[in-house]
Amino acid sequence: MADFNIQEMIEQVVEKLTGNKNLLANFKKDPIAAVKSILGKIDLDNDVLEKIVAAVKGKIDLDAITEKAGGIGNILGKLKGLLGKKFPAGTDRLIMRGLFSSELCPIDLPLNHILGSDETLVGSNQGEEDGLDYTFSKDEKLVLGGEFLMKTLKENKVYIIQREIAKQPVLSFGNSSGDFAMDNYALSNPNYKSLAFQLCCDDLERENGNTEKADKMLKE
Q: pLDDT category, 177, cuts 50, 70, 90?
């Protein structure tokens, strides 16, 4: 098979599908056949076609989600509005649970599998009373207490991984220098081959990147 630019093919298929409701309907019924009809006489192995189909499905789903929410900029704006002028330092576990529970999220991830920064929880009628002196009643709800217990940043990520899963990881994926401690924890695993991957957030359009942070990570 000749060399082809798979990414260009994916973009071509997505462009055709999003501009033609009939093609999109055909894609949903028989994605392999639809992709073949769009790409024409290009001879592709079945495994390549399956990869293209999977990528196209993911791209279409993501576009639908962002369009429904008013675009990625609007999503970020809504999050900033919910969280204040700045995002909290480290990923907040409870906020992520809320996002994964949203109808906009296509990922079925058990909420107890989400790790992140922890903050205090209190009874809605508890006020300033200490948890050791207070008894939760049947007619109240749990609400945020307003204080972080531990933020998932830098070295704290190592502690949280050990606390939550009690295993030293073999794979680490990060996108800033704040993930280096986690990377090193994975790479120092004495029992298994381990790998660490870092995404440099220098793509300002597709990844909502930050040039300053990307340069800092490369230097470190």
A: confident
Answer yes or no: are the C-beta atoms of 150 and 118 closer than 8 Å.
Answer: yes
* 152 band by pLDDT with thresholds 50, 70 and 90: confident
Neighbouring residues of 107: CB distance < 8 A, sequence distance ≥ 6: 100
Q: Is 153 exposed, middle or buried, given 0-12, 13-18 or 19+ CB atoms closer than 10 A?
A: middle
d(CA 79, CA 99): 10
Q: What is the tens place of the pLDDT at every residue in 58-101? A: 766 645 544 554 554 555 555 555 544 444 445 788 878 887 77
Question: DSSP readout, 50-98?
Answer: HHHHHHHHHHHHHHHHHHHTT-HHHHHHHHHHHH-SSPPSS-BHHHHHH
Q: At 105, list the tokens.
A: 């999220």
H or E segment to which residue 198 belongs: strand 195-198
Beta-bridge partners for 150: 118
Residue pair 34/27 in contact (Cβ under 8 Å)? The answer is: yes
In whole numbers, what is the pLDDT of the chain averaged over residues?
A: 78
DSSP 8-state class, residue 10: H
C-alpha 127, offset from chain centre: 35
